[in-house]
Structures are given as structure tokens and as C-alpha cells.
Amino acid sequence: MEEVFADWRQYYEYIWTVRQSIFDEILAAESSLARTLAKFTTLEEKYSIGLSDINDATSIVYSKHENADDDAISKLERRVIGAARSALFEFSPYHTFNEGALLNDFADGVDCVIEIGSGYGKKLFQMWLNGGSEDITYIAAEPIKAGREITRKLAALEPGMRIEVVDFDFDKPDLGILKKFNKVLLFTSWSLMYAKTLNADFFDNIVSIPGEVKCVFIEPISFQITRDTQLSVIQHQNAVRHQHNLVH
Ligand SMILES: C[S@@+](CC[C@H](N)C(=O)[O-])C[C@H]1O[C@@H](n2cnc3c(N)ncnc32)[C@H](O)[C@@H]1O
Predict the structure, then answer these.
(1) Does residue 27 have a pLDDT over 80?
(2) How confident is the prediction for the chain on average, in pLDDT?
């Protein structure tokens, strides 16, 4: 998180407001969810995207990354540092980890999937586009309004996807919406890391859901378990620098 932002909330209000304008531009000429997400990913890969005037969501500025104009061969030769099984590796920029497929496996047999801190719904849409079941209700729970609005616009491209978009904050956990389901997959992805401390209510709320709940947390917090790997040291440094959750 850049130091100019007071906290995660201000940061994500900015981030999702900017992204909302970008999605609006893409959606003006696109009606496929898969292609909209792919175009957005390409833009994010090539440019650092911000606003010239923080109060004007349409004043988008695209600053090209150094290697944005690389041809395919140059890009193939490039390496990005990434993590797998607690170790750091050099990956091709073409390599992606399929979280949608992973989450679909966890969602086997559930009637509801809820993502807390869902941003614009990327992970839920990845599930869907990887063959996620049409019998599941997908719930995107996100505290920032612009994130929820993007999710709704993207969801409109997939009428077969049963999706609900709700306001949710770890600090004021209310999971009443889950009462009507028998078996729930509750997951977070790079969002719980922002909660400096987690209110015990959060877990009480999960336990009090009448149906069965499976929890999956995809978070860069390995340092909370051990700090004897290069990856956990880097994750700890990032958490300290950005004042994220440091509990261990
Ligand atoms: C890095 S984004 C990840 C978005 C999404 N989970 C994904 O993987 O694409 C972090 C998200 O966490 C959300 N978040 C941060 N603090 C939160 C809190 N206290 N309660 C709920 N969500 C929170 C932010 O609003 C933001 O949308």
C-alpha cells in the first residue's frame, strides 16, 4: 500500500474507483465476461494505472511499464519471481496458478460459496469460468462500494451465474446471509491479510452458521507459522511495511 493512503479502506476506495472506470471502458465494447477479464488483466500487466485528479474518477492515467512493449520472444525469456509450496521460483510471465479450479474442487458438494473481501469478484468469476456449478449461490462480500458495483456489472454478463453482492467488513462481521444454506465454502484471497487484528466475533459468527462451513484462506501470511524460509521473511517484511496483520 502506498504511503499516501491512510489505511486499506482509503487505498481500496481509490483502487476500485479507478478500476470501475477502466471496466466501464472495456464493457462499452465487450459483452463476454472472459474477454472483459482478459482485457483488464492485459491492461494491468502493461500499465501502472492511476488518476491524475484523485477526486475525478475519469482522469485515468496509464503509465507504461518498462517491458510493456516486449514481443512474445522477449516475454518468454523474462522471468518473474513467484512462490510455490513455500519456496521461491523463477516463473515465465505466461505461467498462472489456477485458483478458480482449486476453489471449485473445494466447492464440491456445497450450495453456497462466499468470498469475503471479494474486490471486483475476480476469484468468483474465475471459479465460474472454470466450470463452477450453476447450482451454487456465489456471494461476493466486499466493503468497498466501487468493488461491489464492478462485480454487479460483470455478473450481468453471465445470467446463468447465481450471484449476490453484499457489503461486508471483517470488523463488523454479519454472516446472517448464510443461514439459508446447508453447506458453505467460505474463502478469502489476499484480504484477511489487511485485518490488523481479527475480532473473535468473526469466528463466533462462522461457528453459529447452522449449516456445514468449510473455510479456505489464501493469504500471504506464512510468516505467522514460521519465519525460516525466504518467502516467509519477505512476507513478514511486506506486512510490517504496509502495517498488515502481524499476529503470529
Ligand atoms: C488485494 S484485494 C483482493 C480482492 C480479491 N479477494 C481477489 O483475490 O481478487 C483485497 C480486498 O480485501 C478487501 N478488504 C480489506 N480489508 C477488509 C475488511 N476489513 N473486510 C472485508 N474486506 C476487506 C479490500 O476492500 C479489497 O477488495
Answers:
(1) yes
(2) 92
Regarding whether 120 and 77 lie in a shared domain, the answer is no
For residue 86, which amino acid is it?
A: S
Beta strands in 87-224 (DSSP E): 87-91, 112-116, 137-141, 163-166, 183-189, 212-218
Q: What CATH number is associated with residue 138?
A: 3.40.50.150
Average of per-residue pLDDT across 127-154 = 98
pLDDT in tens, 158-184: 999 999 999 999 888 889 999 999 999
For residue 212, give its domain range: 99-223
Please name the residues in contact with 135: beta carbons below 8 A apart, sequence gap of 6 or more. Answer: 111
Residue 1 lies inside a defined structural domain of this protein: no
Asked whether 154 lines ligand 1 (CB < 6 A), one says no
Contact 103, 109 (CB under 8 A): no
What pLDDT, in 10s, does the model give residues 83-93?
A: 888 889 999 99
In short, whether 194's Cβ falls inside 6 Å of ligand 1 is: yes
45 Cα–ligand 1 center, Å: 20
